[in-house]
Each structure stands twice: as C-alpha cells, then as structure tokens.
C-alpha cells in the first residue's frame, strides 16, 4: 500500500504535517512491512537471488526486502526519496548484517533518485531491479513508478529481471473493504483523488510504459495479521493510503473509522486477520 505498501507512497503535504512521521516509520517497520515477506521470498526463490546478485530496490523504504536479499548473499542497494525516517531504519537494519557470514560490504542506501544509485566506475551493472510497492491503489503511484523504472533500467544489464508488485483480484483481498475510509474525502466533495482497486493489467501497463518487456508473473498469499485492533489501525495508517482522509479530517477520526471497518476481521481472541493475495510481474530490461 509504499509510499503505498512496502514503503512507497506519494505523501500529501497536509497529512505529513499532521502525523508523527517517526512513529509512522516505526509502525511500518515493526507492524506492517512483515506482511509482505511471503511476496519477497517467493520472488527471490523464483529468481535465485543470492551470491552474485546485484540488486537495486526502488522505493526501498525501511529496507526489509533488502535485508532478506542480503541474508542470501546479494549485494543490495536501496533508493528512496523524501523518506528520511524510513531510510534511517533501513540503514540501521543493513548495519546489523555486518557480522553475517555472507554479508557484502558494498550494500548501501541512497536518498535520491535511481540515477543517484548508479554503479560506481568499475562496478558491474545491476542484475535485478525491484519495485515492491503495490501498483494501482495509491493515486498517482503508477505514473511515478513508470518514471522510476525508466530511469533505473539503464543501470541494469540487458535482459536483467525487473520485479513489479501489485494487489491481486479485489475479491481475494480483504483489505479492499477498508478503502471506503480512504475514499471518504472524495465521497464528500473533497479535492482528494480517489484510490482505486488494482486493475488486472496494471503491472503490464506500467512495465510497457517504462520500456520493459513482461516475462512472467505469479501470485502469493500475503495475509495481514495483527495482535490486536490497535496494532491493525497503526499498521494500516502507516501505509500512507489514508493520508488524504487525514488531510480532510484528522488522524483520530480516521483511526476511529478504520477501527470500525476492521471489526468484521476481528477474531474471538482479539487478533485481526485479513487474507490477501498479491501479484508480481517479472519484466526484462531491453
């Protein structure tokens, strides 16, 4: 949901001024981001990520996907912009890999654009590009992502895989039911752009606009599970999907509405469980 899920969203200035960005980054890292681990692992297994992989992650956020790749022996570079708190957490995570047997000293986090993450003179081109922030839901995200991919593609070798991720069919994503909270500003005549469910061909369309060649896809179950209702609300707010609603009202009101929307997913033991399916596309640099 960046960043949309995975750390990639396009922050609204009004909302950014009304939330604790440090707390939100921590909530994303500690509560929400782990929900996408099945997606990261499925992609890395399919592509054989390990020693010899040079990975550039676009919109790396707090860096959990980078950490998992580094644990496999990959040399990882993450790039993001306007996410100081999240990048600080990503750097902290990568420092923790220094004692790992297969850790690479050339792993890094870059605050800026993909061009700022270009390989240094003498370094090999990237062998894998990833953009795990789901396409579709956040307004403007697909166009932003296409530009990021077009800028990153020249940094990778010809034929290198590029991974895009998105939500699966709405009927298989329980979290879709929460979008009514995010779209309320538009419902009441606000100027916020309405988030929309992901379209069937969003990933392919974004890849082609970026000059990439689609070359296979897959689906992965990524259920969202939370210890309690409070954790679920904090996790969902950390995605950035509800910034327009926060801008129109206030964080407390949006949190209250989210809690109400989450009640159908509340189990008898107090935990919250929402089954979801994510889809990923593998494209190729031409």
Automatic annotation (TrEMBL):
Residues 185-214 are annotated as: Disordered. InterPro entries: SAM-dependent_MTases_sf. Residues 185-208 have a biased composition (Basic and acidic residues). This is Methyltransferase type 11. It comes from Streptomyces glomeratus.
């Amino acid at each position: 949901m960046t960043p949309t899920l995975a750390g990639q969203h396009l922050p609204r200035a009004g909302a950014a001024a009304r939330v604790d960005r440090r707390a939100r980054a921590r909530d994303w890292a500690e509560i929400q981001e782990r929900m996408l681990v099945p997606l990261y692992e499925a992609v890395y297994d399919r592509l054989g990520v390990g020693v010899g992989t040079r990975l550039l992650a676009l919109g790396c956020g707090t860096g959990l996907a980078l950490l998992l790749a580094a644990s496999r022996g990959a040399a990882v570079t993450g790039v993001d912009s306007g996410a100081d708190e999240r990048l600080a957490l990503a750097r902290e995570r990568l420092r923790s890999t220094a004692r790992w047997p297969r850790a690479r000293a050339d792993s890094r986090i870059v605050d800026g654009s993909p061009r700022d993450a270009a390989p240094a003179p003498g370094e090999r081109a990237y062998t894998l590009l990833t953009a795990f922030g789901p396409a579709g839901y956040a307004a403007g995200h697909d166009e932003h992502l296409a530009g990021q991919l077009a800028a990153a593609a020249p940094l990778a070798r010809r034929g290198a895989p590029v991974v895009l991720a998105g939500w699966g069919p709405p009927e298989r994503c329980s979290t879709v039911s929460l979008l009514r909270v995010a779209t309320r500003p538009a419902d009441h005549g606000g100027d916020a752009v309405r988030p929309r469910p992901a379209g069937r061909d969003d990933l392919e369309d974004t890849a082609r606009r970026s000059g990439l060649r689609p070359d296979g896809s897959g689906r992965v179950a990524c259920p969202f599970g939370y210890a309690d209702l409070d954790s679920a609300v904090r996790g969902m707010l950390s995605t950035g999907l509800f910034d327009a609603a926060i801008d129109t009202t206030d964080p407390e009101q949006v949190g209250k509405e989210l809690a109400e929307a989450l009640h159908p997913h509340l189990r008898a033991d107090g935990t919250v469980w929402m089954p979801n399916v994510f889809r990923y596309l593998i494209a190729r640099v031409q």
